[in-house]
Amino acid sequence: AYVSCWQGGLAVVDVSQPATMTIVGQVDVPGDVWAATLSPEDGVVYAAGRNGRLTMIDVAAPEAPRVLSQIEGLGRGLCLVVSADGRRLYAAEESGGISTFDIASPRTPVFVETRSGWGTGVFGFAGLPSGLHGLVALNEGGLVAITFEAEADRPARGL
User: Fold this and answer.
1) pLDDT tens sequence across 1-10
2) 2, 150, 138: which is closest to 83 by C-alpha?
3) 103, 89 in Cβ contact below 8 A?
4) Closest residue by Cα to residue 80 from 116, 127, 144, 137
5) What's this model's pTM, rounded to 2 decimal places?
């Protein structure tokens, strides 16, 4: 498991024995880490926090994770979701936007855009197993269902 440790960076935890989980590796991340998600096909964890950066962490060797790179362009990232096809990363931001990154080259993602209009702030964001839909939990309460537009994998309100 990959656990965001706020100002402690990212921890890699062996959860094979739930009664005796152990930290097998840890890496300091410049800034902080509020959210982390694994891109399962390439062994890269994407991490975000309130510093406005997206951080790529190589976890191929779980006992020695290492920061690959960071890019600017993200608000206070709260939740991260990798698309079902592994080509896009969606980052829900505290301000209420959802940023999209092209992660076809996972070590060098490219910022695509930020879409807003989800309310006064996003509390949480989850992709659904179909890879075509997601749910956005709003700070002021409520849940918004979204769909990803096929031509650009852009989040849009409504189902």
Assistant:
1) 888 777 778 8
2) 150
3) yes
4) 127
5) 0.78
